[in-house]
Design goal:
single chain; 278 residues; six-stranded mixed beta sheet; five-stranded mixed beta sheet; 25% strand
Length: 278
């Protein structure tokens, strides 16, 4: 079996709230984030962690500082870099001051970085004052320029709003506008996979011949069976393991559970029980 050249972890829709609060008075989102980061660290071969938006539930400065403290502790301990990204619950000025320690700005937060030959491009698909997403012509021109030169191990593109039709009607209204324009930019490039969040449930499609993936959220899970007139969040958290191979990438949804409740068994023992020991 071919081993991946790179493994990254995508954590989406953390919805961190200030100290002492719970999301919707029910969910300890910092515990879920900490559990996801612990899982990434335990893998031992993760090149980078990407946080794909909706980082603070209400763009609160205290929530951003709380998130930064958790991430800084993780990166100091593990040595794994973490990339931040805007979501529709975030606000650009507060995001920059509270999380990045930068001067406030309402400009899109787009950036590109390389990790042992794998390029990760983060696009800001937010529209200030709205919850739907899009990329401006200027952003698409920037992306086109970045992709003009292939990276040694290919590119992972990440944006908050999924460039695909959405199963939940409300999320379709608040989805990504300009799918065809984005497809025209990434078609024929070295993009191995497009990562997104926003929907709070896992889903996949193909755009311009490239896999597109929605990661489950660490905050809670969106119920896809709730019906056209309902929006129902249920208990359950997930993140994504992304493995990159020459010419392709795979995405695996990983349940996130606080420590102490994880089922564990040795792969060798299970293979032996199945009669497939190697």
């Amino acid at each position: 079996m071919t081993a991946p050249t790179h493994t990254i972890v995508q954590i989406s829709d953390t919805h961190i709230v200030p100290e002492g609060a719970l999301l919707h008075d029910k969910v300890d989102t910092t515990a879920n984030l900490t559990a996801a980061l612990a899982g990434a660290e335990a893998l031992g071969n993760v090149k980078v962690v990407v946080l794909t938006g909706d980082l603070a539930d209400t763009a609160d400065q205290a929530a951003y500082r709380r998130l930064r403290a958790i991430v800084d502790e993780f990166t100091t301990r593990s040595g794994i870099p973490v990339l931040y990204m805007m979501g529709n619950h975030d606000e650009r000025a507060a995001f920059r001051t509270g999380l990045l320690g930068e001067e406030p700005s309402i400009e899109p937060y787009d950036h590109s970085s390389e990790h042992d030959g794998l390029r990760v491009i983060v696009m800001d698909s937010t529209v200030p004052g709205h919850h739907y997403g899009e990329c401006t012509p200027e952003q698409l021109d920037w992306l086109r320029t970045e992709l003009a030169t292939p990276a040694p191990a290919g590119t992972v593109l990440a944006l908050h709003h999924p460039p695909m039709p959405m199963a939940v009607p409300l999320m379709e209204e608040l989805g990504f506008r300009g799918i065809d324009e984005l497809a025209g930019v990434i078609r024929g490039t070295d993009v191995r996979i497009v990562l997104s969040g926003h929907a709070h449930h896992a889903a996949a499609t193909v755009l311009a011949g490239i896999p597109v993936w929605i990661s489950g959220a660490t905050a809670y899970t969106q119920d896809g069976f709730a019906g056209p007139e309902m929006l129902r969040g249920v208990v359950g958290a997930a993140c994504t393991r992304v493995d990159v191979y020459p010419g392709l990438a795979t995405a695996t949804s990983v349940p996130v559970t606080p420590p102490g409740t994880v089922y564990e068994a040795r792969v060798s023992e299970l293979l032996a029980m199945a009669g497939q020991a190697r």
